Structure formats: C-alpha cells, structure tokens
C-alpha cells in the first residue's frame, strides 16, 4: 500500500490487522517501541541521520542496519553516535534476534535494487535477511531517479511487495540529486517519522477531538515592535503530535513559532491573544479535550501606533488585559476536559494550585520556567483535585505522550 499526497497522513486507517495487533502488544507490555532502521546505498542516505534523530527523540529504541553500499554514502559512526548502539552490517544470526525484538522495520532510503530484492525474496545481506525473517510490519521510503521510479520493472516490483503487505511511504516529486525533476525523492524525515508513529501508536484517543493552543502571542506596539515572550511552542506542538498519534482529531491554534505544524493537524496560525481567543472560541464546539499550552500575553497595548514610534526619551505604554482563554472555555455551559499550563519562576505548587482552583479545571501542568523555556526537554508536575504527580525529566516529545495517557486515564 503506497502513501502519497493526502493519504500519507492517514496511514493507520488503511494498515492491515498486523499493525493494530502490534500496537496492542506494545500497549499491553507497557514497554518502549523498538524499530530497525535500514539504510541502503543511495544519496538520500544523508536524510537518514535526521530521521534517526527524530525517532530517538520520541524515546524509541533503534537498531541501525546498513548495507555495504550505504556505508559509502554515510559513515556508520554517525548513525552509531545518534542511536547510541553499534551499527549492524552483517552478523550470521543477528536477523533472528532483531526480528523478534522489533515492532517495525523501516528502510529509508529504499533503492530500486533493494525493492527488487524484496519482490523476489532475495537475501544476500543482513538487511534483506531481516526483512524475510521478520514478524513485524515493514515500511519502505523509496528514493531513486525519476526514470527508475517510472520504469515498468520497478512498478512491477512495487506492486508485488505491496501485495505482500509492505507499506510504501512516498516518494515525493521535486529536484533530484542528479539535477532532474520528477517523482523519486525520498519523503522528508518528519513525514516518514509521523507516518510510522501514527501507524504503530496505540489509538487510545480514537474518536476524541482535541484542541491545543501553543507558542507565544505577540501584541503590537507599532508596526515594527511588539510585546511577546520566550515560548518556543515545542511543548504544544509535541502534545498536538501525541494526540494525532493516539488517534485523536487535533486542532492546533498557534502563535508565531519556527516550528512545522504536525502532519494531520488542523492548523490555525494566529498572532495576538485576541486572535487566539477568537480562533479557540470559533472551533471549541464539539471539542472533547482542550489543552491550553500557549504562553498567552496577559496584557496588550491599549492604543498601538499606526506608525513607527521614533526614539525620543521615555516611552510610556498603557496596557489593558487580554481575554483569559482558558477561563472562558472552562466556564462554557458544557466545557471540554480542560488542561491548563503554569510556567512559574518560584513556589510552583502554590501558584499551580491557585491557578487550578481559580480556573476550576480538572488538570494543570506545572513547570519552572528555567527548566523548560526554549529547551527540548522538561520536568513537569501534574496537579489535580486529588493530588499531584511528578513526571521525571524527559524530552518534550516523550512527556507529551505521557501527558496524553494521563488525560485518557482521567477521562476513563
């Protein structure tokens, strides 16, 4: 089954029963996912380093297996450093243990030669042997010249392996390394990673609709200056991705960030707190869970200038309060399950408890600014009426998955 264009965001909807069975096993055992990342000999192998980084960032164990040709395009030491494990190139019996431990095998890039091997059941190296000896899903991210992609032999080989249950991610169309333009470029690492995790993650949020706010807001002083904050948006985007991976329909309302929106989310970019309030209230109907992660400016300039203000001594700005988005949502007649965030510099528990009670919400996530703002990792504490629970320091991606599970538990 081939993923291209709009279909690539919905991989788990069209995957066979093996994927659901595999995700159920992962959930039942409560263990981390393990993936074999196979790399074959193509110029797109340089993208595999970023793909590996994205997979490891989610707390997944990765075994890297490279063909001999792949080692000529990217050094095994690079992949070993990123994975924290020795790279496999050939081991007489390694395929037995690796295939039993893996939840999925991902080949990226997958060359025309390797696809041909798979279609005919050939196994003359460790990676092709692993593919034959597996009892887990197999994903391929093809990468080749446009004419090789369109060649009848390649099309026949692809049709055969798809019939055998192999999942194809991409490829994309664009400028290729050879200078030609057409279909055959390997999909971008973030798209491949999103497709894999959307497929393999347990769908405990299936049927739920989640609205997440993320990032900072920006309040204009004049056309070139503004009041804002240091929020990167990383936590909110990670929560949106965790919601998608767990099967929910996700809407992400975001202030200005440098991040790419998660694939599959309904993305609503805004600038000011008033714009964010409008976007939230317009889309809140039918939402089951509202996660207010955005660092919304408490105040805005009462009378922003239409022209650039020239430097001329002291400048006094009159500020007025912005709407309290979380409070407004929590006070709706039939509010969704509301999760607030509190970023504090001191007395975290006191301030978090005050906000939890003041907003009258069931759950609040608290953290210290110095631990989180702009970082890739964080240490958070969950507060509710029944007590508190500290989640140890981890990447924001991992924490987002844990938070999604905590929300699901609170709803059950």
Briefly, what is this?
The chain has 412 residues and is an alpha/beta fold.
Keyword list:
412 residues; Rossmann fold; 2 domains; eight-stranded mixed beta sheet; six-stranded parallel beta sheet; 16 helices; elongated
SSE topology sketch:
Elements lengths: L1 E2 L7 H4 L2 H13 L4 E6 L6 H12 L3 E6 L9 H8 L10 H8 L2 E7 L1 H9 L5 H8 L4 E5 L3 H5 L1 H12 L3 E3 L2 E4 L5 E5 L3 H12 L8 E6 L4 E4 L2 E3 L6 H12 L3 E6 L11 E4 L3 H11 L5 E4 L6 E3 L17 E3 L3 H6 L6 E8 L3 H12 L3 E6 H4 L4 E8 L2 E9 H16 L1
Parallel strand pairs: 1-6, 2-3, 2-4, 4-5, 5-6, 9-12, 9-14, 12-13, 14-17, 17-18
Antiparallel strand pairs: 7-8, 10-11, 15-16, 18-19, 19-20
Helix pairs in contact: 3-4, 3-10, 5-7, 6-9, 11-16
Count of helical stretches: 16
**What is the CATH first-level class name of the largest domain?**
Alpha Beta
Number of domains: 2
- Biggest sheet descriptor: 8 strands, mixed
Indicate the mean pLDDT. Answer: 87
Q: Radius of gyration in whole Å, from Cα?
A: 24 Å
Strand content: 15-25%
What characteristic shape results from the CA principal axes? elongated
Poorly predicted runs: 1-30
Counting DSSP E segments of at least 2 residues, the number of strands comes to 20
CATH topology heading of the largest domain: Rossmann fold
Describe the overall structure.
This protein is of the alpha/beta class and 412 residues long. It folds into two domains: 2-200, 3-Layer(aba) Sandwich (Rossmann fold), CATH 3.40.50.1950; 209-411, CoaB-like (Rossmann fold), CATH 3.40.50. 37% of the residues lie in helices and 25% in strands. An eight-stranded mixed beta sheet has the order 13-12-9-14-17-18-19-20, sandwiched between helices. It has a six-stranded parallel beta sheet with strand order 1-6-5-4-2-3, sandwiched between helices. Strands 7-8 form a two-stranded antiparallel ribbon. Strand 10 (219-222) and strand 11 form a beta hairpin. Helix 3 (46-57) packs parallel to helix 4 (76-83) and helix 5 (94-101) crosses helix 7. The model is unreliable at 1-30 (pLDDT under 50).
